[in-house]
Amino acid sequence: MFYPLYVLTIGADTPDFHSLTKAFHTYGVPHQHVSPEEDGSVAFYFYKERADAMFVPTLIMLDNDTCQSASVLGQLKHHSVLRRIPVIIYGRHNNPEVVTLTYQLGAACYMPRPDNWSSAMMAFCSYWQKRVAFPAIRAEDILL
Amino acid sequence: MTNRPFIAVVDDDEDDLFLIQEAFKSCLNEENVILASSGVDLLLRLETVSILPSFLLLDLNMPQMSGFDVLTRLRSDPRYTLMPVLIFSTSNAQPDVDRAYELGANSYVKKPASFADYKSVVEDLCNFWLRVASTPSSRIY
C-alpha cells in the first residue's frame, strides 16, 4: 500500500488558484494551501504544525509567478525528509531557461500554467493520482 | 523545445521491454524509444544522442547495475542531472520508493501487473510528461 496523493499548494490567492482548487475538488484530490505572504510559506506550514497526522503532503506545487520558488525549494531540499517530496513548479512561462532552472533547482517537474486547470487535471490525476507512488512522510519527521 | 520527443527505457526483462516499446508505439504513433537492457547499455546509448530524452523509464531490479546504481550514476554526471528519471518497478516496498526519491528520481511509477495495463500506463505517462509538463529536452505541442 503506497502513500496517497496529498497536495500542498504554495502561491498567491488568485483567480487562477481558485480554478486549480476547484479542479482538485472535482477530481477528489486532497489539498491544502499556503500563501507566500505567510511567513516563509513552507517554514510557516511546518513550524505551525499544520502538517499534522491528518494532512501530510506527498506532493508540493509551487506557483512560480507568485512565490519565490528557488527559496522554497532550497528549504525543502536541505531538509533530511522533506527533500524526498516531489515538487512541481508551475508558471506562465515555458521558455527553456525557466524549464532548465526549475530542474536544476531540484524540482520533479515543470508545468506551464494551463489555460484551463479542469482540462489539465485529467492528465495530472491520471498520472500523479493513479500511477505514482509517493515517499513515506510522517508528521513527526517533517517539523522544521 | 520543439524537438521530436524520444523516450529512454532500461529494463533487463525482454518481455517487459517489448511491451513497453509496443505501448509507446501506440501512444506516440512512431518509434522513438531507446531501449536498453542494462544500465551499462543505457549509458553507452546516451553517449550517442545529442539531446536528452524527454524522460527515462528505469527498472529497479536488474543484475550487476541496479536501478538505484543507474540513478546514482546519472545524478552524479552533469550531462544527465536534468533528465527526468521515472522509476518503473513492480516493487511495492516503501523503502524502495523512499530511496528512489532520496536519490533524485522525479517520480516512482508502479509497473503494471498485467500485460493489458501497459498501454494505459504508458498513455498516462505520455499525456502528462509530453503534453502537460515541460522537460529540458523536448515537448509535444
UniProtKB/TrEMBL annotation, chain A:
InterPro entries: CheY-like_superfamily (IPR011006). This is Response regulatory domain-containing protein. It comes from Larkinella arboricola.
UniProtKB/TrEMBL annotation, chain B:
One of its GO terms (biological process) is phosphorelay signal transduction system. The keyword Protease does not apply. It comes from the Bacteria. The modification 4-aspartylphosphate is found at D59. The keyword Phosphoprotein applies. Keywords: Phosphoprotein. InterPro entries: CheY-like_superfamily, Sig_transdc_resp-reg_receiver, TCS_response_regulator. Residues 6-126 form the Response regulatory domain. This is CheY-like chemotaxis protein.
